[in-house]
Amino acid sequence: MIDTIIFDLDGVICSTDHYHYLAWKKLSDELHISFDEKDNEKLRGVSRMESLDIILEKSSQTYSQVEKEEFANKKNTLYQQYLKQMTPSDLSVEVKETLDQLRNKGYRLAIGSSSKNTKLILKQLGLENYFDAICDGTMIQYSKPHPEVFMKAADLLGKNYKNCLVVEDALAGCIAAKSASMHVAAISSAYGSPYADYHLNTFKDLLEINNK
Ligand code: B16
Ligand code: MG
């Protein structure tokens, strides 16, 4: 019986996944590395530094750790410029109404995101005090597909992993949730993933999940 729903953030609650793409694209262009939307798919749910390493695999140059940190900081500054322009109107009515209805049905609601910008994003969307628990990129050692982020979110609520449903847009996130023995609902880019138990055409399809 599912009593807790853990939401991924980028690409599930909000469309910040596109801002990640724009910021990585700008950095890649500056470094003369080819990068397109298809490459961006590999970065979903993956931490900032691991994402940079994936992008740099295409480069013929080798960079020092200091240079890599500089690149990651540059990308994050660009990304945050987009985030700071977000307002509560960037939260879709469908997402907010569905969250409210799930809460009314009695589910505990949590965030499980690899992003170190989670608190900023939730604040911009007017959701800073909405969720019962938040586990984000600042609180974990291992990034998805490791299950740490979802296990910690469940632990914060004292919930059994088997009673949690994770909503994910990334293959890495679906794998992470499954390896924690959680139920998985895949949306967007993760739709059709063999690691998912449910496939959502749209966010409000969560309301149709038969909770037995
Ligand atoms: P940041 P999620 C992930 O968030 C993104 O999908 C991924 O593209 C990003 O690299 C990662 O957060 C780290 O984000 O640079 O903000 O710390 O999908 O797990 O909510
Ligand atoms: Mg995501």
Give an overview in words.
- The structure is a single chain.
- By secondary structure, the chain is of the alpha/beta class.
- It folds into two domains: 4-14 and 89-208, HAD superfamily/HAD-like (Rossmann fold); 17-83, Putative phosphatase, domain 2 (DNA polymerase, domain 1, Orthogonal Bundle).
- The protein contains eight helices and six strands.
- It has a six-stranded parallel sheet with strand order 3-2-1-4-5-6.
- Helix 1 crosses helix 4 (65-83).
- The longest helix is centred in the middle third of the chain and has 19 residues, at 65-83.
- The chain is globular.
- The termini are close together.
- The model has no long low-confidence stretch (mean pLDDT 97).
- The site of 1,6-di-O-phosphono-beta-D-glucopyranose has 21 residues, from helix 1 and helix 3.
- Residues 8, 10-12, 44-45, 169-170 line the site of magnesium ion.
Defining traits:
single chain; 212 residues; alpha/beta; Rossmann fold; DNA polymerase, domain 1; six-stranded parallel β-sheet; 8 helices; globular; binds 1,6-di-O-phosphono-beta-D-glucopyranose; binds magnesium ion
CATH architectural arrangement of the largest domain? 3-Layer(aba) Sandwich
Low-confidence stretches: none
Q: CATH top level of the largest domain? A: Alpha Beta
Q: Count the strands?
A: 6
Distance from first to last alpha carbon: 5 Å
Q: Could you name the CATH homologous superfamily of the largest domain?
A: HAD superfamily/HAD-like
Q: What value does the Rg take, in angstroms?
A: 17 Å
* Bound ligands, each once: 1,6-di-O-phosphono-beta-D-glucopyranose, magnesium ion
Number of helices: 8
Largest sheet: 6 strands, parallel
Keywords: Carbohydrate metabolism, Isomerase, Magnesium, Metal-binding, Phosphoprotein
EC number: 5.4.2.6
Catalytic activity: beta-D-glucose 1-phosphate = beta-D-glucose 6-phosphate
GO molecular function: beta-phosphoglucomutase activity
